[in-house]
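so my prof wants the structure for this chain in the tokens format not the other one, which i didnt know existed until like an hour ago. anyway here's the sequence
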Amino acid sequence: MSIRCGWCVEIDPFDYSVKPVKRTALGRFKHEACAFTELEDGRVAVYMGDDQRGDYSYKYESNLPWRDYIRAGLSPLDDGKLYVAVFGAGPEGEGIGDWVELTHTDERIAAAGLTSMDLVLTYARVAADAVGATPMDRPEWTTIGASGEVYWTLTNNDRKDDGAGALSDVNPIFENTDGYIISTTDSSTTTFEWNMFLINRNTRRPDDASTDEADVPYAAYTAPADGGANVFTDPDAAWADPFGRLFIGTDGGQRDGLQDQLVVIDTNTGEYKRLLTGVASDEITGITTTPDYKTMFTNTQHPGNGSPSTTNFPAPFDGVTIPRDCTLVIRRKDRGIVGS
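here's what i got, hopefully its the right format
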């Protein structure tokens, strides 16, 4: 089993002479994204998903305020605690959960053969198994919302029959081909509340329920108010702005002949609209803006899955030119109100 991959590596994009640094304390698993936030006491929290069907949601918290580390010439990402999420439900069905610390002093983890922190961090999935973490439906991106909530994209999981995950309060769909988005809010370092923010098959008319005998019946399906005009599935990339908007890039499985897309959601009202459509067999990933929020950057990844017979993007179609990954620039028409 290789132990070289699955780590987070920090680079300095402004100074190529600075060596990349592996941030071991964030654990080793299939990181798709990290969402950073400063806690009230100045410490740093990092929220991370493991992009694998049936794997877990993680959080890292530094032991001290980040300014203390910087003054000492150190990094807050090298000295802290790694947690894994156990999702549950309260007496009235409300979403609650626990952040369970992954440490070799936990008897369950030590019994799994992880008797030192280097082993725990290297085999974080094994440690998470040992403490009964909740298997998730491919937790990919995380982002911090305008009110401090964390949004998590759960892209899909249609392999529960094969043992990759299981039904639970937070994973209510058995044949989960469309994915969903949840939000979490920490109540303390070790407890949190969660909500089902959006079930993606609710953006379209679902398949025949009789084909999903093991499923919770349509997970409270509600018909889309737009009649399905803005169908989007398989949420992946995520970025929240300070104005309550959540931008989602998708990866795979789009319905009705659609390509992958970039969607914007008003988190205050739940309204969502398609902002951009990609090209055949691509993935829309990575989202950020300029400081004035008037220019957005996103990317199309693996257009055509590399096949020139499918697309030659960004070149005109000729059936020969190899398609290329590209950064796309979206410019806002200036209406004078950046937050509108």
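also thought this was worth mentioning. The mean pLDDT is 92.
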